[in-house]
Amino acid sequence: HFLFVPLTLGLSVLVAILQTKYYKTGDEAYKKLTKYFGGLFLINFSVGVATGIVQEFQFGMNWSGYSRFVGDIFGAPLAIEALAAFFLESTFLGIWIFGWDRLSKKAHLISIWLVAIGSNLSALWILIANSWMQDPVGFTINNGRAEMTDFLAIVKNGHVWLQFPHVVLSGFSTAAFFVLAISAYNLLKQKKDATIFKHAVRIAAIFGAVSLLLTIFVGDLQGKELVEKQPMKMAAAEALWESEDNAALSLFAIIDEENRTNTFNIAIPGALSFLSYNNFTQRVEGINDVEKQFVDEFGEGDYIPPVTLSFWSFRAMVYSGGLMLLIAILALVFTLQKKIDQKKWFLKVMLWSLPLPYIANSFGWILTE
């Protein structure tokens, strides 16, 4: 299901931006682009809805123990997401689809913006539910079940307001690269009206570069929160077995989980301490020390996640995001120079960069969970 969500979040906004350009300029090129990418948005949205319905059944069938334990809390934001955000999104999507030449230009434009707002409100309520899993607040355990005691505390959970912008901005970046890749394909094939896609490249490059820079900024804030709230996750993501002052940020490592060591490691001294605390010498807790704290507090148990998977999931996300930022900046430069259609090699790079946001999104969620 999550393969389709980020594109819905971002492409709804990009289609709305394209239609806004058409509304303001009257340029038919933007109308054609709006209808073209709007059609692709509809396909993605439809498959997302279908997979989402399957997932609703999974809560009761595959994860019934989980649903019994936290259903009182988890069900509330999911119900609000369906009854408010999703209904807003789907209703105005129908109006937008059938409203061409039936509504005024302004009313029709408003409908696609309401679709975009509804899509991203859906993400907010889903992430409120997920953030409770990451940082449980506003509940009590009663008769073996988690029961909600403070709905506002769950909504105002600090984890939400870092996770939500990170996910939404990732969706914006996904949509930007989707538009870049599709536009590159049309420019390479020199299909009918291919020149209109130069407009799409310019808008997507700006949208993508800004979104990626903001994603990195919010991701940095999330990392600092992880050090405080989920130190084991951060230690596993860095394969940091022992606590270190002036902790190094690993770029590449061969990890021996059985013996709790890294047999090979290329790292930047002090960089992990800086990312964690904005201080190059601060001590960062390692896996073994965090495990000992958990055993002392909660008793014997398995507190260590799959370290190799966590380590490489984090790097797949970060390395993909870094490469995306470089491509978005180059796309913007070539577009401003009005040379994008002449750079055949770069159009191929844009086309084959389409998997990058999906790699970053998927491995980012693997690390999160």
Could you characterize what this model shows?
The chain has 369 residues and is mainly alpha-helical. The chain is built from 13 helices and 4 strands. The strands form 2 sheets. A two-stranded antiparallel sheet has the order 1-2. Strand 1 (139-142) and strand 2 (145-148) form a beta hairpin. Helix 1 packs antiparallel against helix 2. It starts with a helix and ends with a helix. The mean pLDDT is 95.
Main beta sheet: 2 strands, antiparallel
Radius of gyration from the alpha-carbon trace, in angstroms: 23 Å
Strand portion: 5-15%
Give the end-to-end Cα distance, rounded to a whole number of Å. Answer: 15 Å
Return residue spans where pLDDT drops below 50 for at least 5 consecutive residues.
none
| Helical residue percent band | over 70%
Shape: globular
> What number is the mean pLDDT?
95
* Strand order in space, largest sheet: 1-2
Q: Would you list the SSEs in sequence order as H and E?
A: HHHHEEHHHHEEHHHHH
DSSP strand tally: 4
Tell me the number of helical segments per DSSP (H or I, 4 or more residues long): 13
User: Structural class, from helix and strand content?
Assistant: mainly alpha
